[in-house]
Amino acid sequence: MEENKEELDKLHDKMSDLRAKIDVSNFELMLTEKVAYGNLTPAMKKKIVAILNYFETLNFAETDSKTLSGDLQNLLTEFVNSIPKVIEVNEETATKPDHDKSNRDDTFDDFELDPESAALHESIVNSMRQNELTYEEAFYKVVNEK
User: Fold this and answer.
1) Is the pTM for the entire model greater than 0.70?
2) Residue pair 133/141 in contact by the 8 Å Cβ criterion
């Protein structure tokens, strides 16, 4: 009976470990999605994962509060330093600059854009604006939705 209890306890511990690994995996997947959508930079993701890994390997019983505080402060400082400058864009700052006609590239002026390509371009530009994406990200989003 005691032997079965020990085996059940071991099994329960393994299940808890697996649940924790699944939770971490899901968290890392969410971070990857945030990077893909431009909400996080790869450097920010790397620092967040480092903080997560630190807590996963930490033995609270053997770590004194001064060490914990210092390590956590260092990890958070690295994270904060990885955050890029935030540039706020509003209607007043998001005006198109006047283009000098002399610098204009007229290589394609003699070509017509077919209606399907024009519609695709318009969809991409709309996706860029609505989702705050680069042209390339919006292109892949629009093409994959079709």
Assistant:
1) no
2) yes
Q: In angstroms, rounded to a whole number, what is the distance separating the alpha carbons of residues 129 and 121?
A: 13
Q: Is the dihedral of CA 47, 48, 53, 56 positive or negative?
A: positive
Position 98 scores a pLDDT of 52
Rg (CA), the chain: 25
- Of 136, 137, 113, 139, the residue nearest 124 (C-alpha): 139
CA 138 from chain centre, in angstroms, equals: 16
**Token pair of 40, please?**
């996080």
Query: Which of left, alpha, beta for 112 (phi over 0: left; psi -120 to 50: alpha)?
Result: beta
φ/ψ bin of 105: left (φ > 0), alpha (ψ from -120 to 50), beta (otherwise): beta
C-beta neighbour count of 140 within 10 angstroms: 14
**Residue 35 burial (CB count, 10 A):** 16
